[in-house]
């Protein structure tokens, strides 16, 4: 590695990786071309104008905005609605805008609020206004309400109803006497296989209060996709279990226990880095605070909402900082013990080690390998999508939401640094160093290191399986070679080059929206991303400036040079503790008091069950299931093989019936109750909705038929 030819070859390979990655990126990962000409400021201004024109939302409202996509519709179209070409065609022909700006108008303590949508190019694309249930309004008939809906949707929201036909209609009378109508229309000139383009129009009293475009997705697809996703989640759960058992309990727990006994543990610097990484994650969350107002519940005061978020941030900061610190302690300690030829991690940027050519080489090498790993990802997906039919959702790389944060560069840097530092420490150093130490003790060091490589590659890949890729094993397979590459870097050169590579690689992905955005002053954010990504290089160059020349890494900076402090010889004498037993009479008194307390608790529990105003359950589980089978036979229903009946008790104490009991009083509630609990008829699987409307005195048993464990 001291030869110029090596670095020239690595630089050429890095440049080739950059060119290949850029050239084939659109073929590997489908890119959506959005005509994104509306920015956040314009969305807020036009939403305010529409609210003023149509008198939408509360007076004195506040605004929040976000840009997002309909992931469910996109998944359906790409998998079963014609593929990615059909999804792109749908966006291009304006059949359905899967990506929209959403602007929310809300006011603290007021249930009246409005969400207005715009297409990426700024066309109004619907809205939803929530009114108070007791807000006054007209009680029109269906034909008059439909006329209002169609007139205003056409005139104000550019809905071409000539291409649609009415397929569903519903109405609801509100407590104030107002009658609300919902009309659902379906497009007749275009479909998505089994999917349908639809639009919902809602009229509250005599006002249009909703225009919502959506794609009607078949329930069969939803179930199929849930089944597909279950495999992803199962792999992810397996990775979590492996991480908890092997890395947390084994590496951090058992590993640090033995290292502490040998006085090998260094806590101070690891704790500082844990606070730094945890603090950056907290700052990233604060940075995205403006987007949280999209989910703010107006029933909660703004001060309470902010206090809740601050409490969550504080808890997250403490919890993550502690966990990160423990991970860094374990990774550095085990590495220092297992690999004496590595530079000491906490001294890599010291005055002695920082200006060395060895640390410079590890830093430059980490950066140069970013494009190599990027090109691998691109070429892998080009082959796998074309030959083996792998699927990953098409990406809209421009996310203007990032511009709604206080400092767009911060989230990209903070998330990338956390992933690069923490994942390399816990997913790479802990398993490989632990395997090396165990193998060394058993005389099979190389064999156990090889096993550690396998374990870390499997768990690291499986941990990324929950991403929306198909087949479920796509991400684990994708990450096998990168995991081996990261592992080899760690094995030969220590943690530093892997951390730099992982960090810079993630910045490339997380910062893409910033570099593709076109907004005034965005260049400042781009410069900050580059500057902070190169911080490890700036530190090395600064140390070089201090030293005045490039140096050799001193032997004192290697792990082999570190020795544990001697054990303390201090002996502390402690007086023997004396105990005095209590008398037999006192023991008998304590036993009697305990027995009386248990009897009192049992009596109170039994009394409370008898005094339950909602009644008691007259049936056993087996009796309820038998009644259900009888009811099904009486209705001519025969359960096929593989189906079974399961009983679930429902005491009727929740929902509307509890509301009546607690607000109108027990007397009025009992006036609605049957004279005898025997009046309760068994609930079949067809009576679930009616069960929920029973009063609390009618304890019922709800039944479901299950097909091999799938509800």
What does this structure look like?
It contains 23 helices and ten strands. The protein folds into three domains: 327 residues, no CATH class; 180 residues, no CATH class; 87 residues, no CATH class. The chain is α+β, with helices and mostly antiparallel strands. The longest helix has 43 residues. Helix 1 packs parallel to helix 10.
Annotate the secondary structure layout.
Elements (H helix, E strand, L loop, with lengths): L3 H25 L11 H15 L7 E8 L1 H10 L3 H9 L6 E9 L2 E9 L5 E7 L11 H16 L6 E10 L5 E14 L2 E10 L2 E10 L2 H43 L6 H20 L1 H4 L9 H37 L18 H31 L20 H35 L2 H19 L10 H5 L1 H14 L1 H16 L1 H5 L5 H12 L1 H13 L36 H27 L10 H14 L8 E8 L4 H10 L1 H7 L15 H4 L8 E8 L4
Antiparallel strand pairs: 1-2, 2-3, 3-4, 4-8, 5-6, 6-7, 7-8, 9-10
Describe this protein with a few key phrases:
711 residues; alpha+beta; eight-stranded antiparallel β-sheet; two-stranded antiparallel ribbon; 13% strand; globular
**Broad shape:** globular
Biggest pleated-sheet summary: 8 strands, antiparallel
Number of E-state strands: 10
- Proportion of residues in β-strands: 5-15%
Number of helices: 23
- For the record, the count of structural domains works out to 3
Helix content: 40-55%
The whole-number mean of residue pLDDT values reads: 88
Q: Which ranges are low-confidence, i.e. pLDDT below 50, for 5 or more consecutive residues?
A: 674-711
In short:
The chain has 711 residues and is an alpha+beta fold.
């Amino acid at each position: 590695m001291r030869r110029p030819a090596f670095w020239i070859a690595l630089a050429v390979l890095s440049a080739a990786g950059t060119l290949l990655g850029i050239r084939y990126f659109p073929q590997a990962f489908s890119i959506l071309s959005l005509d994104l000409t509306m920015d956040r400021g314009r969305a807020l201004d036009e939403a305010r104008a529409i609210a003023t024109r149509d008198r939408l939302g509360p007076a004195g409202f506040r605004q929040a905005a976000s840009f997002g996509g309909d992931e469910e519709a996109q998944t359906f179209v790409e998998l079963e609605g014609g593929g990615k070409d059909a999804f792109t065609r749908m966006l291009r022909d304006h059949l359905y805008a899967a990506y929209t700006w959403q602007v929310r108008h809300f006011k603290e303590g007021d249930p009246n609020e409005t969400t207005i949508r715009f297409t990426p190019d700024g066309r109004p694309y619907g809205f939803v206004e929530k009114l108070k249930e007791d807000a006054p309004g007209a009680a029109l008939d269906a034909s008059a309400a439909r006329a209002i809906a169609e007139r205003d949707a056409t005139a104000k929201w550019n809905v071409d109803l000539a291409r649609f036909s009415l397929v569903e209609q519903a109405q609801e009378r509100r407590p104030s006497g107002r009658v609300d109508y919902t009309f659902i229309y379906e497009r007749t000139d275009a479909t998505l296989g089994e999917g349908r383009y639809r639009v919902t129009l809602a009229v509250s009293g005599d006002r249009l209060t909703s225009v919502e475009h959506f794609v009607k997705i078949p329930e069969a697809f939803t179930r199929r996709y849930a089944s597909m996703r279950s495999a992803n989640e199962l792999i992810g759960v397996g990775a979590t279990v492996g991480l908890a058992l092997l890395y947390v309990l084994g590496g951090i727990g058992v590993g640090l226990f033995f290292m502490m006994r040998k006085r090998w543990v260094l806590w101070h610097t690891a704790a500082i880095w844990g606070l730094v990484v945890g603090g950056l994650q907290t700052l990233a969350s604060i940075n995205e605070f403006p987007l949280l107002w999209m989910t703010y519940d107006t029933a909660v005061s703004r001060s309470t909402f902010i206090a809740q978020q601050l409490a969550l941030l504080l808890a997250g900061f403490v919890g993550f900082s502690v966990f990160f610190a423990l991970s860094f302690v374990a990774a550095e300690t085990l590495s220092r013990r297992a690999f004496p030829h590595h530079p000491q991690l906490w001294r890599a940027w010291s005055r002695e080690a920082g200006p060395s050519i060895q640390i410079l080489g590890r830093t430059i090498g980490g950066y140069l390998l970013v494009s190599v790993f990027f090109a691998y990802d691109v070429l892998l997906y080009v082959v796998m999508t074309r030959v083996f039919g792998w699927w990953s959702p098409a990406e809209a790389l421009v996310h203007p939401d990032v511009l709604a944060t206080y400092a767009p560069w911060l989230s990209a840097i903070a998330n990338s640094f956390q992933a690069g530092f923490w994942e390399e420490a816990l997913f790479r150093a802990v398993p490989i160093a632990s395997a090396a130490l165990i193998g060394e003790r058993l005389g099979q060091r190389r064999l156990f290191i090889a096993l550690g490589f396998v374990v870390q590659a499997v768990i690291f890949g499986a941990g990324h399986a929950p991403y929306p890729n198909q087949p479920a094993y796509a991400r684990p397979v994708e990450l096998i070679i990168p995991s081996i590459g990261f592992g080899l870097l760690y094995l030969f050169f220590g943690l530093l080059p892997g951390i730099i590579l992982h960090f810079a690689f993630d910045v490339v992905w997380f910062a893409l929206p910033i570099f593709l955005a076109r907004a005034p002053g965005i260049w400042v954010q781009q410069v900050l991303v580059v500057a902070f990504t190169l911080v490890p290089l700036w530190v090395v160059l600064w140390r070089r400036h201090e030293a005045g020349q490039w140096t050799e890494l001193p032997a004192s900076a290697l792990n082999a040079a570190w020795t544990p402090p001697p054990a303390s010889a201090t002996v502390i004498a402690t007086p023997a503790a004396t105990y005095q037993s209590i008398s037999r009479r006192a023991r008998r008194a304590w036993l009697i008091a305990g027995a009386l307390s248990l009897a009192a608790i049992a009596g109170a529990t039994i009394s409370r069950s008898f005094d339950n105003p909602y009644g008691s359950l007259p049936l056993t589980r087996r009796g309820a299931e038998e009644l259900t089978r009888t009811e099904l036979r009486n209705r001519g229903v025969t359960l096929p093989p593989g189906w079974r009946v399961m009983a679930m008790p429902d005491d009727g104490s929740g929902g509307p019936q509890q509301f009546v009991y607690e607000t109108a009083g027990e007397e009025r509630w009992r006036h609605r109750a049957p004279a005898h609990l025997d009046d309760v008829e068994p609930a079949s699987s067809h009576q679930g909705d009616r069960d929920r409307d029973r009063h609390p005195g009618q304890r019922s048993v709800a039944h479901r038929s299950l097909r091999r464990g799938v509800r």
